[in-house]
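Could you help me review a protein record that somebody else here produced? This is what I was given.
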Amino acid sequence: MSPESLQLKKEFEIQKIASLHYFEYKSDFIFKSEYHDYWKLLYVEDGSAEITFSNKKLSPVILEKGDLFIQSPDEYYSFKAAPGKIAVLFTAGFYCDTQHPALLSNLSNKKFHCQKKEATLLQDLALEGKNNFSPKINPVSPAALERRYNQPFGGEQLISIYLEMLLISLMRQYTSSEEQKDQKKSMDQPEKENNLSPALLKTDSILFNRITDYYEAHITEHIKVEHLCKEFAIGRSHLQRIFREQTGYGAIEYFCQMRISVAKRCIRENKMNLTDTAAALGYTSIYYFSKQFKKITGMSPSQYQKMVRSSKKDPIYEQIDLENPLSPSDIKY
């Protein structure tokens, strides 16, 4: 006798998308949204941006690198790139079918900072979008997506799956955050971070965040594994394991990725020449800088600079073909 089958539950389903776009906005660029009846996610891969709303009850939201924002339908908003900085933005508009409307409402008009899991899903989503659709770029009102004639098998289904996985991850993150808030409220005197046990302070995720914060503060220096082990009282193998699990890179390899990410931003903002950029980031020679840049990006700094300049459109340009979009190594710093 065959066992009775079980119908799997689906909390929500995404069957239609309205937009998938990957843009670089020049500093001070302002975009005023048109009306739309679908959900929209905005992810800042690089730079900084501010979102303001026509609904005065909603406060402006500042999005930094690695932040993701979920915009609800029927909401007018304005997007503004930070002064003096280029904002690299990925957006996806979608329709969501659910028997529980409150599910997505819990995420609407909230800011999340992407962890490795969400960053990977966004990368996969952007690449599938590029492989399956040919968007007509318009800086004011992006045109409808057009299917490519040579779509890979299952591409559109993967786009739906990646979006659903991303929303589930964010919902769990939100639920966990709310539960933690409730627990804190139930305590008479919440513990301060300094009073946490040494074991808790040395969990892998906390150590990773502390070390990457250290990287940011010392981005122009030459860092060695031995120095990190001493600074954070951690063994070499443990250090490497943390970074492999969190990023897929070794500890120093990840630091090099961070430095080159900063270098790419400097080149895009066009405030210094290549020699000055190398010096500002602590490279001892333009030769060593160029060698490491090419190793990580697959092109020399001058080639990258040329491609950025040739692809620019005023006041906005698409950069989806210049480099692998939404690289997980570009998320946190």
Remarks:
- The chain has two domains: 12-176, 198-323.
- The first strand starts at residue 12 and ends at 25.
- Strands lie at 12-25, 30-32, 39-46, 49-53, 61-63, 67-71, 77-81, 87-98, 110-113, 316-318.
- The CA atoms of residues 172 and 178 lie 10 Å apart.
